[in-house]
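Progress note, sequence design subtask.
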């Protein structure tokens, strides 16, 4: 494995106190999809917004990096619901002013290897349904019931989000309507809901083949999040032309046009609360930026356990609610480079999901207890096969990414160490895990053995270092049924002047965080101001 060199792919403007404007209307902590969406929408409304990103590049989990002549994305593997003028696509188009393009993946966009069985998820609601029926002909009625539930329950998440954008008195008034409109089973566990439809464990496993997209297996996840994800990808997967970094790159101009900026290397030490309200932020270099409006896209754990003083958290009554949420699992990433194109190597434009058996929950439990147990899920993505522009940037090369879960506890003894300088024991452990994951790749694509030019492995400590998630969590807060029912997890906080956005506000994923940015903006400015803007976005 070659020695790592810093990436040269950078988005944003390097922070220096002298580069700040004299004043801003709002400060956004974190430049992930939620923070950028919120900043861009506020900018469209005439606000001057300062986005503060602690990493060397903007974008959060949508950023990309280059090394050894290759380019990889750290969090964007595919996006759904952008192949037609949907609400998702229209918001992306508005934020990027039409500059962000999408390339469709293959018709069979997801392939599930479940023990000895293989299932290909096909793009299109009818095609997806028919393919399920072809593999499980005795379960046609159950499959049709499932498809119906995806429509009713998967679509209800938008109602939850809009309800959380309301003021407390508005939520009280709307509570009876909400109770009447919300479909049943929303917060039941995915396994329990599916067991009411079928007792075929292979069908249940197939329907839950994307559980890695939220990080919880079916006996622990809420059906509403499962349904949202499955519905999101019903019409296939898409990839940003030019790579994931293009997402942030195409949003920044809207922020700058209004006089704002996205600063990198801009680590916030604390959110200042004075006289019972937000007063601004103190930077890591000691510089103070005064502003009565701060939006945190840094995650709930970071916001309340790292950026706010303990006394503030206690005074505003957040200690007890924080005990009811926990971080999601961490992950390993293997970033692979090959000489020769995706076509020359026979790389598919399809994601691979590899499972040891159809009992996902048992596999997760065994793996948590024993690092030598089979990985409960291994996800393999082929970004250079997805991006029609990749060869223009990196001719004659191809890339692959492997993602698998990994508890932070395995790496805790190296906590606090510096990236690239964690010692031989860490490098050996990381290399062993990487080699195991490479065997999954060679098992499915044996023609690649001996052809790999470069690869490197990331761990939850890498996520902690670059993304500032304190336990290297991939999806922010764990998406348990209990978490999804906690009303305090929304854009509003009890602290005047402090707002939340990002994946902890609604759900994980690029689209979930983007919609959280929309909700936060709505909560901040109200529907009277948001109405005309929504009309501009959606027509």
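Output:
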């Amino acid at each position: 494995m070659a020695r790592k060199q810093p990436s040269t792919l950078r988005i944003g403007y390097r922070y220096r106190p002298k580069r700040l404007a004299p004043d801003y209307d709002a400060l956004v902590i974190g430049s992930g999809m939620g923070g950028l969406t919120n900043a861009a929408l506020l900018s469209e409304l005439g606000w001057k917004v300062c986005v503060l990103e602690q990493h060397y590049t903007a974008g959060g989990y949508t950023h990309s990096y280059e090394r050894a002549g290759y380019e990889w994305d750290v969090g964007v593997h595919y996006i759904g619901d952008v192949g037609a003028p949907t609400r998702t696509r229209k918001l992306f188009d508005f934020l990027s002013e039409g500059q962000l393009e999408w390339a469709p993946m293959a018709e069979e966009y997801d392939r599930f290897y479940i023990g000895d069985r293989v299932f290909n998820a096909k793009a299109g609601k009818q095609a997806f349904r028919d393919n399920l029926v072809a593999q499980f002909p005795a379960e046609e009625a159950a499959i049709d019931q499932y498809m119906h539930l995806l429509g009713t329950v998967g679509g209800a998440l938008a109602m939850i989000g809009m309800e959380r954008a309301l003021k407390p008195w508005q939520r009280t008034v709307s509570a009876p309507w909400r109770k009447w409109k919300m479909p049943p089973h929303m917060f039941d566990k995915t396994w329990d809901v599916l067991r009411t439809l079928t007792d075929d464990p292979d069908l249940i496993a197939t329907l839950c083949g994307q559980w890695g997209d939220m990080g919880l297996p079916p006996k622990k996840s809420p059906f509403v999040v499962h349904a949202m994800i499955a519905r999101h990808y019903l019409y296939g997967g898409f990839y940003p032309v030019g790579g994931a970094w293009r997402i942030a790159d195409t949003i920044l101009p809207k922020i700058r046009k209004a006089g704002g900026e996205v600063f990198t290397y801009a680590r916030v030490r604390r959110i200042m609360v004075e006289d019972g309200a937000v007063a601004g932020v103190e930077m890591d270099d000691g510089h103070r930026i005064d502003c009565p409006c701060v939006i945190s896209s840094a995650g709930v754990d970071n916001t309340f356990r790292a950026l706010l003083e303990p006394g503030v958290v206690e005074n505003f009554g957040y200690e007890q609610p924080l005990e009811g949420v926990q971080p999601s699992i961490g992950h390993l990433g293997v970033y692979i480079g090959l000489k020769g194109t995706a076509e020359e190597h026979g790389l598919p434009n399809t994601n691979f999901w590899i499972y040891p058996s159809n009992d996902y929950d048992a596999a997760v439990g065994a793996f948590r207890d024993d690092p030598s147990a089979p990985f409960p899920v291994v996800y393999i993505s082929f970004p250079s096969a997805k991006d029609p522009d990749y060869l223009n940037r990196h001719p004659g090369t191809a890339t692959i990414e492997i993602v698998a879960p990994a508890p932070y506890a395995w790496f805790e003894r190296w906590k606090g160490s510096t990236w690239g300088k964690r010692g031989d024991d860490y490098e050996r452990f990381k290399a062993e895990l990487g080699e195991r994951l490479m065997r999954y790749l060679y098992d499915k694509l044996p023609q690649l053995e001996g052809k790999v030019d470069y690869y490197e492995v990331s761990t939850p400590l890498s996520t902690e270092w670059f993304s500032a998630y304190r336990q290297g969590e991939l999806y922010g807060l764990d998406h348990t049924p209990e978490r999804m029912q906690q009303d305090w997890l929304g854009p509003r906080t009890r602290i005047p002047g402090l707002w939340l956005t990002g994946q902890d506000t609604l759900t994980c994923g690029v689209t979930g965080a983007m919609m959280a940015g929309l909700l936060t903006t709505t909560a901040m400015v109200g529907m009277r101001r948001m109405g005309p803007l929504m009309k501009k976005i959606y027509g």
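The longest helix spans residues 510-538. Work on this subtask will continue into the next period as scheduled.
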